């Protein structure tokens, strides 16, 4: 029997992770509540779950790790032997230690990791890498992953061992990059969409060309959402990464990797 209450939790600046988590939830059962932690005002909440609930938790992968701001938010999350389905979404290069990091953090907060999976989403830096993903095939895998995970969650018992996933400890060191922010051209029509959807409130609410580079996490939400394509990264470091991604991963279709508790 599937758990009665399924809750979705995700951080998803470009909405790829949102699509995956929603598909997993659709396979897992009836979703009773959703926490979208993408915007800063939504991350002020603290939530707690019991053993009869089922949580689906998803985050994007940034350079082989989960977003640092989500690591901080997890201090606001508490489970009580609560089964959790975990998903990371990466841009077709590698998810490295993101999934094991997410598992470790959630189990340290009182959750039982019944399953984990690494999905592919179109890379935020370029539409030429994993173009259009997650696609219908990915979403179908996500639904089936959710259904199987829910069955395992229903059978999970107190004190169960967490799922074994791919990754290393200690985790990959977070790469150091200089502060940078997207450039805004004269094509900007001052609609404010970029500021409204910025996960760190880095974009000025009146002058949308003013962006605090120290706050920018290079998620590319503003770039992807701009209706006139007025924003882009021009920093040499980003351009080099983009070119390497296109050269090495534009013609590769990586498959979903799923892991289940035994």
What are the main properties of this structure?
2 domains; Alpha-Beta Plaits; 20% strand; alpha/beta; single chain; 262 residues; 7 helices; 28% helix; Rossmann fold
Helix and strand sequence: EHEEEHEEHEHEHHEHE
Read across the widest sheet, the strand sequence of neighbours is: 2-1-4-6-7-10
Would you tell me the overall average pLDDT?
95
**Main sheet properties:** 6 strands, mixed
Percentage of residues in strands: 15-25%
Number of strands: 10
What is the global morphology?
A: globular
How big is the Rg? 18 Å
> What's the CATH H-level homologous superfamily of the largest domain?
Flavodoxin domain
Q: Give the terminus-to-terminus CA distance.
A: 18 Å
Helix share, percent: 25-40%
- Say what oligomer this is: single chain
CATH architecture of the largest domain: 3-Layer(aba) Sandwich
Which regions have little confidence, pLDDT < 50, spanning 5+ residues? none
Number of helical stretches of at least 4 residues: 7
